[in-house]
Amino acid sequence: MTAATSEQTAAEKTGAHTPEAADVINGARERIDTLDDRIIGLIQERVAVSAVVQEARISSGGRRVNLSREMEILGRYREALGKPGTSLAMTLLELCRGRI
Q1: Would you say the pTM of this structure is higher than 0.90?
Q2: Cys bridge to 62: 36, 57, 68, 91, which one at CB 3.0-4.6 A?
């Protein structure tokens, strides 16, 4: 494989028009992949902790879901991330419900 072929492949993969830009994009994508792995791990941890909370609530005679707490969480994400934060929080809450 020639250098021109590798550059073409890098450009095709990244959409960049120069090898330098392709390098920047590849480096940033590696960082994003690392961050995504951490985020997934944190979500899995959140799901586990939420199951503990739900189990304690249910075993004490309460409901599985505490709507006022969910509204707090929605507001927190909306404040920090704007309207898309609400969607993200809803997805997290959905992931964490009903695991027990």
Answers
A1: no
A2: 57
